[in-house]
Amino acid sequence: MIGMSPLKIALQQFINGITKKNLIDLLPAITVELQVEVSFATFCQISYTNEEGNYCIREFTGKTWSKKLFLTQEREIQFSVFVNNHLLLKDQTIVMTKLVDDKIVGQQKIQLDAKSTYSGWYKLK
User: pTM (2 decimals)?
Assistant: First the structure.
């Protein structure tokens, strides 16, 4: 280390201090993906708990929405959707899916009521 600047020395010590175990600890252990598919283009709100356990509400317009969460330990993720059927379309559906490490752990198909523009929050059971 003779002739190296203090910055290079510090950087070299940092790199040497990283072990394979440390790198594995930095990576998330569990991937959770939340998906919503609506049979028609509309405005929706999605409520879910994020990686820190806080409730989040996201809005989207269209037919599909998805969100990936990266967890370091297993825990329950709450997930619900609010759909606007403002044209009172008949025979419309919502499909809510939760995947953990690319495996479906929860899926629900919901038939929308054509008599109401807002049917309330649908929660994945």
Answer: 0.75
pLDDT tens profile 46-95: 999 998 899 999 999 999 999 999 988 888 999 999 998 888 888 899 99
Residue 5, pLDDT score: 76
- Cα atoms in the Cβ-side hemisphere of radius 13 Å centred on 112: 29
Q: What is the mean pLDDT of residues 9-13?
A: 71
How many domains is the chain partitioned into structurally? 1
> Which domain CATH number covers 63?
2.60.40
Who contacts 16 (Cβ-Cβ below 8 Å, separation ≥6)?
A: none
Within 10 angstroms of residue 119's Cβ, the number of other Cβ atoms is: 17
- Give residue 6's identity as a one-letter amino acid code: P
Say if residues 46 and 57 touch (Cβ distance below 8 Å): yes
Half-sphere exposure of 27 (CA within 13 A, CB side): 7
